[in-house]
User: What shape does this take?
Amino acid sequence: MKYTHVVHTFGPVYDADSKILILGSFPSVKSREIRFYYGHPQNRFWKVTAGIFGENAPETVEERRAFLLRRKLAVWDVIASCDIAGSSDSSIRNVTANDMDVILKEAKIRAIFANGGTAYRLFLKYCGKEHQPPVYQLPSTSPANAAWSLERLTAAWGERILKALTQEAPALRQL
Assistant: This one.
């Protein structure tokens, strides 16, 4: 496996009204190419999040950014830099984490959702602090998570995200 040291080159998407923070682990090769989140065409993130709100999936970076802000969703990654082989989460090592306070001090985040187990574990290891909103693991939207259909992902994500947007986050249950 050929490792490369990679630095995250694009910032988080959020504004002062963001209520939900969705965290990935680290951008894929394709996402790094387009300099925006979930850029691989097989990743189901945009279909899932748009489906939660009954919308068509946004296609351009500008449409995706506008969708996130309109729906009060913030998106970032746990990792600021790491050694990685391609896009493989399982190959991640030598991690430097992002400072979550960048968002948490400016936005009204009620709950943090990790997109998959790797993002969840990395968040707990490198970023978790007592003063933060509760963090929950959601099933990964990656094409590698073939056990979860688009419909099943949308239902699982929708149940938790819509509840967090309308109620107090601690009432949510972990998957």
Notes: Residues 82 and 95 are 5 Å apart (CA to CA).
